[in-house]
Amino acid sequence: MKLYSNEIVFRGHPDKVCDQISDALLDACLKQDKLSRCGIEVVGGKGTIFITGEITSNAVINVESITKRVLEDIGYSSNYTIINNIGKQSNDIAQGVDVGGAGDNGMMFGYACNDTEHSLPTAMVILQKFSKQYDELRKIDTRFKPDGKTQITGLYDGDFKLKEIKTFTICYQNTEVDRVETDDIIKKMVEKIANKYGIKINEFLINPTGKFEIGGFEGDAGLTGRKIVVDSYQSFANVGGGAFSGKDPSKVDRSGAYKAREIAKKELKARNLKWCEVQLSYAIGIERPLAIYIDSSDGVIEPTDELYEECKPFNIITDLKLRETKYEEKARFGHFS
């Protein structure tokens, strides 16, 4: 048996808050102008939220009110100084994107496996379900606060299937009132989720330092795009070089990664595979991918010319309806579920 770990952060984690603000601003732009070009970055900490990056759009949005709405929705005070430092996208980039080319260089990965009904690893699904249920819990029980992160250290067999959980580590922000009771609520929630997949948990580590009362931007700084492993496959697959949040779908960091996931799922089911991983790569301003590489439990799969055509940015955006997608929702618990 092998030990392997993966993690997720709650939507109140400072980095995730920044991701959600970036994507909320993107959503607001796309709602008014489907052709908005955005690359929005947020940094927050100690009473101030600094918003920078680029927006080229006919949309008129209220950056401060959107930011405060996101904070309140997550469960934080909106009493922050909001600094708007957003500019416009460079014309040098636009001249290549306007004709259908990729919005950036880079490589993106997509992954799927047959472990669960979600075509994702069991441990990843357990953490996603837990983070979602925790968010619902903190809305009805004020002893639970928004910030936190959790990690599974699992025991895996030779086929890399999760057999049991050695250690379930949970760090959750709370009022430190009735800790024995709140810890017990958390344990039962996790055990119920794990039981659905036939997974036994051998031990819990809950707030190992002993206390977690100060969190959010008061406890740590946050930055858009700093949780790219959590956003993708929690270390079960390769991760591309770029983050997702705040980027409109002309940016292949985002659209290419979404397409690679769709290809992986399609190949997994069509060929009855155990797992499939897809890499796409692009050059800025060029439509056709530089390369498509598909690896799987049955070996390398040769991409077709039709697939290269499918993976041109304009076709990805159209086929996956990426100008109608609500990105703030994707930024909360991971982009693949």
Number of helices: 11
Oligomeric grouping of the chains: single chain
- H/E topology pattern: EHEEHEHEHEEHEEHEHHEEHHH
Strand content bin: 25-35%
Total E-strand runs: 12
CATH architecture of the domain at 2-9 and 122-216: 2-Layer Sandwich
Uncertain segments of ≥5 residues (pLDDT<50)?
Answer: none
Estimated radius of gyration: 21 Å
Largest sheet: 5 strands, mixed
CATH C-level name of the domain at 2-9 and 122-216: Alpha Beta
Helical content (DSSP H or I, runs of 4+): 25-40%
Shape: flat
CATH-derived topology of the domain at 2-9 and 122-216: GMP Synthetase, Chain A, domain 3
Give a structural overview.
With 337 residues, the chain is an alpha/beta fold. It has a domain at 2-9 and 122-216: GMP Synthetase, Chain A, domain 3 (2-Layer Sandwich). Helices cover 36% and strands 26% of the residues. The longest helix is centred in the first third of the chain and has 19 residues, at 14-32.
Write the layout of secondary structure elements.
Blueprint (H helix, E strand, L loop, with lengths): L1 E8 L4 H19 L4 E9 L2 E9 L6 H12 L6 E7 L3 H7 L8 E8 L8 H19 L3 E13 L5 E13 L4 H18 L3 E2 L2 E3 L9 H4 L2 E2 L4 H4 L20 H19 L4 E8 L8 E6 L8 H6 L2 H7 L7 H7 L4
Q: How is this structure best summarized?
A:
The protein has helices spanning about 15-30, 65-75, 90-95, 120-140, 180-195, 215-220, 230, 250-270, 305-310, 315-320, 325-335; strands at about 1-10, 35-45, 50-55, 80-85, 105-115, 145-155, 160-175, 200, 205, 220-225, 275-280, 290-295.
Please supply descriptive tags for the structure shown above.
single chain, 337 residues, alpha/beta, GMP Synthetase, Chain A, domain 3, five-stranded mixed β-sheet, four-stranded mixed β-sheet, 12 strands
